[in-house]
Amino acid sequence: MDKNNMPQIIYSNLARLLDDPEHGVSMRKLSTELGYSSGYIQKIVDRKRGLTLDTLNEISNYFDIPIWTFFIDHSNPSDKALLISELLSGLSDEALNVIFYFVQFIAKNDTVPSPT
Fold this sequence. Notes:
Helix content: 55-70%
Radius of gyration: 17 Å
Order of helices and strands: HHHHHH
Shape: elongated
Number of strands: 0
Strand content: under 5%
Oligomer: single chain
Largest sheet: none
Structural class: mainly alpha
Distance between the termini: 37 Å
């Protein structure tokens, strides 16, 4: 984790979250649902307003994600391993077994099977 680049990582992760169609929420909607003016989140993303830890916590609660995920560099393999671990923690034993065998296959062959 590069502490010197932490603000960029946080803002990048915020932008990625807001651009994710799975969440389907606009900056305006997020702003107003958090109780701020309609342009509040846009100003944060544009870096015209500072992002506080309290606001970051509100955003993480809104999306039901751990706040620490904003501090992860998604291009860093060891940080990706932390994210994978977090995602796996809530899965059933059956799902974990399927994933385990899939990962074993990839590790042995160093390839990913193509979907058919």
